[in-house]
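Sanity check. The docking grid for NAI depends on where the pocket ends up, so I'm generating a full predicted complex first rather than guessing from homology. Inputs follow.
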Amino acid sequence: MTLGIGVIGTGAIGQDHIRRVSRALSGGRIVALNDINADNARRAAQEWAPDAVICDTARDLVARPDVQAVMVTSWGGTHAEYVLDAIAAGKPVFCEKPLATNAADCLRIMEAEMARGRRLVQVGFNRRYDSGYLDLKAILDNGTIGDVLMVHAMHRNQRVGPNYKTEMAITDTLVHELDVHRWLLDDEYVSAQVIFPRRTSKALPHMRDPQIALLETKRGIRIDVEIFVNCQYGYDIQCAVVGELGQANLPDPPAVPVKTGETLSRHIMNDWKYRFIDAYDAEIQDFIDRASTGSPGGPDSWAGYAASVAADACVRAQESGRIEPIEMIAKPAFYSR
Ligand code: NAI
Ligand code: ISE
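Predicted complex below; grid placement will be based on this.
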């Protein structure tokens, strides 16, 4: 059986996921597309899914009988509404991160999903599918470096466009680390602070960049994450975990060392699209496989909620300059099974 997939939002990552479903993965077929900018949807169809129907509204797309599963890859602020539509229709939905831009909307999604009585949501926290992060997690879980004390992490983008706001350093960028660190450490956050180093002149005037988020977990682990989204030189994701017995680092993606002109160099990627290409392939294949059975797997709405609660605290901390508490509701049994 081939899973009929409808995609809402056909920008950068929407098109990339359409391409991978159509050309790289198996078991799925793009049958419908929607975008508030219909030209984007038409372009995506032309390039990657010529048989897909272009729907006037996202609601029309979700309602189509040939759409058996939905992918939401529009702007973050629109995710909650479309995920709720898919849940109401009883259709599995892959939602790019963030699940919603605030925790209150994530709660509404969890309540709707629990009311349907079946897991329907997979959140696009692709790093959980990255071989480097999986290897790092295996090292931490087998105790090689002993009890973890600290994490030093870095999220650098080459540059960002004019629509990117200071708050998005948290809700759009740091949210990856907010998910991956609680998953890596099997721990929850208790507080967050955000500090602003000297501002880079390479950022657009409305934006404060770089930023440093300082997180504390229930077990007392301290995590510092540098977010620097106009770093100029490339796309660079780092994570060093320090334990009582040693340190484990996220490996850099492989690149051929080149010696020329008395210089040794290695290429650095410039974009998430290439840095995590295998992880995106694995997460979307997982979605297709599991959604075909009726219920997706992977990061669930609870993961989306947990990251959003922490993100809300970081946004408050950006404004207050203080250490802000991070408080979650008790985990519903539905998300523990
Ligand atoms: P983009 O701006 O390139 O594309 C977004 C598309 O959504 C545009 O075509 C826009 O017209 C459309 N859109 C906006 N509002 C809509 C609405 N109400 N209904 C239908 N379509 C709508 O943005 P990009 O980079 O593709 O990001 C989209 C989402 O994917 C964001 O949530 C972002 O955080 C996430 N993302 C995740 C990545 C990852 O590493 N997992 C990487 C890049 C993006
Ligand atoms: C983008 O939305 C992503 O998710 C990328 O992975 C991240 O590096 C970038 O900062 C975000 O804007």
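Relevant for the grid: The mean pLDDT is 97.
Also worth noting: The longest strand covers residues 148-156.
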